[in-house]
Write a structure and sequence with these properties.
alpha+beta, Porin, 9 helices, 37% strand
């Protein structure tokens, strides 16, 4: 029947247009990732690529890559990357499982990030290769505060639009059958065309309404996720670093084992406070590199205040302070004593961020303090599901 074919085609169009919102039982966390920050790479913090004593806590991303573009100190080229397996297709975790409040193991796995970093430092005019590996676990105090969960719960109602349009289609088909029955199945061509045209008009109106509702629903999901940018979290990280001279046969020495406990606490809709307590054991005293290596233990405490601008959450200004010690010639104590900075998203679709910092820190050779500037470029591909839903 022609009307049935029209209905089927119209409904298929709607299903295709909103298929990104329809996959309820099979959805993975990676489909709901919202780009709200440049992302943290713990291994980069271990060898000083971030130049900060802060352990950054953000909603974990699927993958982050970072390049140290500029550093006015002795650090040279540096690269780093981090991956959160549960938020990728490598070891995916369903959003339904992750968002279950009582499933603590799933929430821990969903916030587990593995990272690696390497760079070159010049100490006493000699270049040394550094590398580090780390694991970080971040945990939202309230699971609904995870932006991915907030987006998912907002999107959860969107597939119902398809059921609504199907009900309307069924009603209109029933109306056509009734009209035929009332006329003993002998509708004239004019009468039949009139019913079909009415059906087409009503279906077009329903499709337009459903699409507008789908866009509004997707936008609601985005807004719900963005509001969680400064949700309260706790984090634990463990990493290890090593240093080796660039000369052939140079031995590898330990930069220490670093354990950090950190918290992120939202102070208002636009502000965030990060606090980190970091302990490094058996860390190389860099002043002993040319003699018999000596090792030290050290503790660092640092705080950072971040202010986020606008609903787009693509520009943040920050100020941080730490108790980094000028008297301790170790890599961890070469972090900023105090600094100001900005994080800015350059592109939305590609997830490209720039981090800029300027402040005071100790030179890596321990000889004096310096005014240091840092520029890092980070990229993390972001989910296209919400955008796709909004642009249908």
């Amino acid at each position: 029947m022609r009307v049935t074919r029209l209905a089927a085609a119209a409904l298929a169009t709607l299903l295709l247009q909103n298929q990104a919102l329809a996959e309820d039982a099979k959805d993975q966390i990676e489909k709901f990732l919202i780009d709200l920050g440049s992302g943290s790479i713990s291994a980069a913090e271990v060898i000083g690529i971030s130049a900060s004593a802060i352990t950054t806590i953000e909603s974990p991303k699927d993958f982050i890559a970072a390049v140290n573009a500029t550093n006015t100190g002795d650090a040279k080229a540096g690269v780093a990357f981090a991956i959160t397996p549960a938020r990728t297709s490598i070891a995916p975790l369903s959003i339904q499982t992750y968002s279950t409040r009582s499933n603590y193991l799933a929430r821990i796995w969903g916030g587990t990030t593995l990272s690696y970093a390497q760079n070159i430092n010049s100490i006493a005019d000699v270049d040394y290769k550094q590398n580090a590996a780390a694991i970080q676990i971040s945990y939202y105090l309230d699971p609904d505060d995870d932006p991915a969960v907030a987006a998912y719960k907002s999107f959860a109602n969107c597939p119902k639009l398809q059921a609504e349009i199907q009900i309307e289609t069924d009603k209109l088909q029933e109306a056509l059958k009734t009209a035929q029955a009332e006329n003993n199945g002998r509708l004239t061509k004019l009468e039949r065309d009139s019913v079909i045209n009415s059906f087409r008009l009503k279906l077009r109106e329903d499709l337009a309404k459903a699409n507008e509702e789908a866009k509004a629903c997707a936008l609601k999901g985005f807004q719900a996720a963005r509001k969680k940018w400064n949700a309260s979290q706790l984090s634990a990280a463990y990493g290890a670093g090593w240093i080796r001279g660039t000369a052939s046969g140079a031995s590898r020495l330990s930069l220490g084992r670093t354990t950090s406990i950190a918290g992120a606490f939202g102070l208002s809709e636009s502000s965030l406070l990060n606090v980190t307590v970091r302990r490094t054991t058996r860390e190389l005293d860099l002043s002993s590199l040319s003699a018999t290596p000596a090792y030290k233990d050290s503790n660092l405490v640092a705080g950072r205040f971040t202010y986020g601008y606008g609903d787009e959450r693509d520009l943040y200004v920050l100020a941080e302070i730490s108790n980094a010690k000028a008297s301790s010639p170790t890599l961890s104590n070469a972090a900023f004593k105090y600094a100001l900075g900005v994080d800015k998203r350059l592109t939305d679709s590609f997830g490209l961020w720039v981090e800029f910092r300027v402040g005071r820190s100790r030179m890596i050779d321990g000889t004096s303090d310096q005014t240091a500037a840092l520029l890092n470029i980070k990229v993390s591909p972001t989910s296209t599901l919400p955008k796709a839903a909004m642009t249908q």
